[in-house]
């Protein structure tokens, strides 16, 4: 896998050419910015910004005017005004290779709060090491209804120690309106949910995204995370996808690297609350 070419493909297909990620969501390009507007429990934010390295001045490094007219501070202010007008908190999803290089500082100065930095990792499915096995007595069950969603939410709240009502709404919406775009699974040990994860499939692209992989404390370190990654990878391959994408935390990154995922850049959520 060519990291530079793959990152460029990721930007084109999932950011600049983004599709709505759920029912009621709308993606639109406004000047240099690609943003998504969704219901309150959905994801609202900026996916892509075609800004350049001198965006504060509107000029190129060599002194001439920038024909794209990309002004970072102006673009930031416009998105704040738009989402504030909708009374929506929103996220500016910033990647390590985005320009200008001080865009994160500009976002903070405008009132955004940065979240934890993660690593964008991509794996080319044919090259991944997917031999992970489940612990004895554990099985993976597909999630197709409200009862299954409740199990996923239960695991998520225990694993990440936070309210996951947003996840319940989002999964129920996707399963009802577009079941072919989401794969949710739960690992059961004697009927008890001990690990869960989901995969979001983006039609018309070569990428499937892995999200929300979490395991309750008592079952960590037994290979469940690896097994759920392998399970979702096989499902994605069967549906014609070539790449898996993960925003990896510090704990997940070494596991994913051992499976064959490659770190390409960083990603940081900058959140603005009206």
From TrEMBL:
<dbReference type="GO" id="GO:0016747">
    <property type="term" value="F:acyltransferase activity, transferring groups other than amino-acyl groups"/>
</dbReference>
<feature type="region of interest" description="Disordered">
    <location>
        <begin position="45"/>
        <end position="72"/>
    </location>
</feature>
<protein>
    <recommendedName>
        <fullName>N-acetyltransferase domain-containing protein</fullName>
    </recommendedName>
</protein>
<feature type="domain" description="N-acetyltransferase">
    <location>
        <begin position="138"/>
        <end position="274"/>
    </location>
</feature>
<feature type="compositionally biased region" description="Basic and acidic residues">
    <location>
        <begin position="58"/>
        <end position="71"/>
    </location>
</feature>
<dbReference type="InterPro" id="IPR016181">
    <property type="entry name" value="Acyl_CoA_acyltransferase"/>
</dbReference>
<dbReference type="Pfam" id="PF00583">
    <property type="entry name" value="Acetyltransf_1"/>
</dbReference>
<dbReference type="InterPro" id="IPR000182">
    <property type="entry name" value="GNAT_dom"/>
</dbReference>
